């Protein structure tokens, strides 16, 4: 699904009681916030109906169950879990592209009923328009918001510079590397100033060196803009490097196994983290959480406290 399809779909998720803005986007009724969090997910459950091998019967696949999470404003939250645990389903629900069978999501006290421009969605497939130049791709969301052309160009230039693509404004996606295309996708999501960035394994398709560069770029952007980011990844190392909090999910049906606060100092850079004992210890700890079914037992055996004597904590006598 392209960004054009996503944005054009806006307004289709509300009910008749919801007013429309001058742009035709749904304006859900503001509900009293449950707490001071930017995003509140309450008791989400998502079930898919699948055709069984007998064809006449349908089977239910529970993708998410009892998923509850609060995300503070300006937080960087990474979500990790086994393949098929519902990470991308969760992001689709947050983006308003799917509705949960049970539960709800509020952003700034507003019930999420469909796609809207308060959320930017960055996918691993770039989803750029091949017939548009870099600056035209970056400015698409601003066009939807009917920002005047000159102002739109100034905003696009600002974010093109921010992601390090100055001089490539008039290039087409086919003329860019994979890493550069992903930078365009990030700049496009930032340009129309969403409150929340949803990122679904955005660096999975690039090589290791480019991935590290993009990780540093993303941290730099987050530090400058203060956006609230929810980041899906299969890489524990990436999650610990980027996030202030890592949510570890169980196997399907996906729910929260443990939420881990990452107290590593900032600013962080990939090269520095590679030689940090605390960073290695935390990544090892999260790997253990993903491997072990018994959370309580793993918590007892592998404490998470950063600043411990890491050498003594990982000694054979400790792990046995």
Please provide a written account of the structure:
The strands form 3 sheets. Strands 8-9-10-5-11-12 form a 6-stranded mixed β-sheet, sandwiched between helices. The longest helix is centred in the C-terminal third of the chain and has 18 residues. By secondary structure, it is an alpha/beta fold. Helix 5 packs across helix 6 and helix 8 crosses helix 10. The chain is built from 13 helices and 12 strands. The chain starts with a helix and ends with a helix. Helix 7 links the parallel strand 9 and strand 10.
Strand coverage percent: 15-25%
Largest sheet: 6 strands, mixed
Mean pLDDT over the residues: 81
Contiguous low-pLDDT stretches (5 residues minimum) are: 1-34, 295-303, 306-320
Q: Which features characterize this protein?
A:
single chain; 320 residues; alpha/beta; six-stranded mixed sheet; four-stranded antiparallel sheet; 13 helices; 12 strands; globular; disordered N terminus
